[in-house]
Amino acid sequence: MRESIERSRETFESQTFTQPKTFTRFSFSSLSIKYRLPLLIGILLLGLILVFTWASYRSMRNTALEVGHADLDVGQPEDAHQVCTLLNRWFTSPS
Known about the structure:
Layout: H1 2-16, H2 33-74, H3 77-92
């Protein structure tokens, strides 16, 4: 019984007090092509999606602003003047 306790204690100590693992930097080139290629394709697709989403957002924003300005120009001039006056008061009023 005493021997089994000693063995389990030695096993526990050898597992617990080993040298800490050193962490190495991640290197993309250390991956095999099996993992590198899908990762690269995924990153490229994500980049394309982000670029086209941003371009679409900018285009829609500019179009909406142009339509809004056209509506103000074509619409009732007194309404546009009232809106501008209200916005000027709102932005310039002390808080």
